[in-house]
TrEMBL record:
PANTHER family: GUANIDINIUM EXPORTER, SMR FAMILY PROTON-DEPENDENT DRUG EFFLUX TRANSPORTER SUGE. This is Guanidinium exporter. InterPro entries: EmrE-like, Small_drug/metabolite_transptr, Small_multidrug_res. The chain crosses the membrane at residues 33-50, 57-79, 85-103. It comes from Methylopila jiangsuensis. One of its GO terms (molecular function) is transmembrane transporter activity. GO terms for biological process: xenobiotic detoxification by transmembrane export across the plasma membrane. Belongs to the drug/metabolite transporter (DMT) superfamily. Small multidrug resistance (SMR) (TC 2.A.7.1) family. Gdx/SugE subfamily. It is found in: Cell membrane. Coiled coil: none annotated. Keywords: Cell membrane, Membrane, Transmembrane, Transmembrane helix, Transport. Its main location: membrane.
Length: 104
């Protein structure tokens, strides 16, 4: 169950990071509320995951999912540059997260 919580925590991290961008510095109420709720959900799910997973593993996977996911969302929704080196770096993050999953 810890891995399920961790995956959901990472996905909700992507949600709050994206809604943070839409909140425009917390000046728009709707995205600000989404940011706060998603952040609370993400941290709660991370806390549940860390009941059964080591902290180093859980935190690294959580931030990896969030970093890779937010970068991809930025490319799709916000026109962030899509460059081969950026894609390769995302691939390295994903490889690291998968590596940690299979080592644990």
């Amino acid at each position: 169950m810890g891995w399920t919580y961790l995956l959901l925590a990472g996905l909700t991290e992507i949600v709050w990071a994206t809604s943070l961008k839409y909140s425009e510095g917390f000046t728009k109420l709707g995205p600000t509320v989404v940011t706060a709720v998603a952040l609370a959900c993400s941290l709660t799910l991370l806390g549940l995951a860390l009941k059964t997973l080591p902290i180093g593993l859980g935190y690294a996977v959580w931030t990896g999912i969030g970093a890779a996911g937010a970068t991809i969302v930025g490319m799709i929704l916000f026109g962030d540059p899509v460059e081969p080196l950026r894609l390769a770096c995302i691939g390295l993050i994903v490889a690291g997260v998968l590596g940690l999953k299979f080592v644990a």
